[in-house]
Task: structure prediction
Amino acid sequence: MPELPEMETYKTLLRPRIVGFPITGIDVQREKSINVPVREFRERVQRRTVTDVSRRAKHLLIHLDSGDVLLAHLMLGGKLFYGTESEKPRRTTQVVLSFGERNLYFIGLRLGYLHVLTVGEAERRLSDLGPDPLDPSLTEERFFRALAGKRTALKSALTDQKTISGIGGCYSDEICFEAGLKPTRKVDSLSVEDVSALYRAMRVVLEEAIRFGGYMETPLFVGDTLTGGFDRRCKVYDRGGEPCVRCGRPLLQDEIVSRKTFYCANCQR
DNA sequence: AGGGCAACCCGGACGC
DNA sequence: TGCGTCCGGGTTGCCC
Result:
């Protein structure tokens, strides 16, 4: 479930810890999590130095001095932990990158993965993604055009990675609540003012989520007080039946294309 | 264009 | 405590 703010938080916290450092060891505990034979993975990754950590949509990119890129997608429930073996939470780990005594653990990857790719391959893999919601070049005008002509439910459009990338189940609901729009609304029924409100809500919600470290419950490292701070600030996600923070009426749980959706029927139109 | 569906995968929740 | 079962979630791809 990690979405844009969670991956952005990981990026920010990982940068000072692994950029400039060599990967001293590799441990692949589940081969399905990687894209090449273990031997090749080790040859391409071990002893390479990390030159940068970046994010694209829900992907985390670890750039190596060889030019290769480690592309991670945590899908549902995957998480990262950085620290020593004794600090690591007792969870099943699929891939471990060692940085001396400390390790970067990829935990609970199910459909998630850590792929080693050339820059070109990585670019191709990410080329279908729509604009990043926080990209300064995504103006309100461009956002309007991205949604133009769509007849889907608002939630479907917001979570469609080709339309706009990085938003998943939680933040689509939070953004709709902030904008005062029902996630079930058809996109082509939205007024110019609605789309404008949606655009502002998208930025407000995602920026606040990033400021508070997203909603991941497990800290990235021992003493990490940033990660997960947004969890308590979610206003509708996974709160079906609970009172709306604005009007007090119970929040509804609905389903849009077989995805759980939460909203307030009173505050959202 | 977009909805429906199956496939992928397994941690966690639930039942007994 | 332990075992079995089932579900969910993002993404891709295919069909209608």
About this structure: Residues 4-125 of chain A form a domain with the N-terminal domain of MutM-like DNA repair proteins fold (CATH 3.20.190.10). The beta strands of chain A are 25-28, 50-56, 59-64, 69-73, 79-83, 93-99, 102-107, 113-117, 252-256, 259-263. The CA atoms of residues 132 and 165 of chain A lie 5 Å apart. The radius of gyration of chain A is 19 Å.
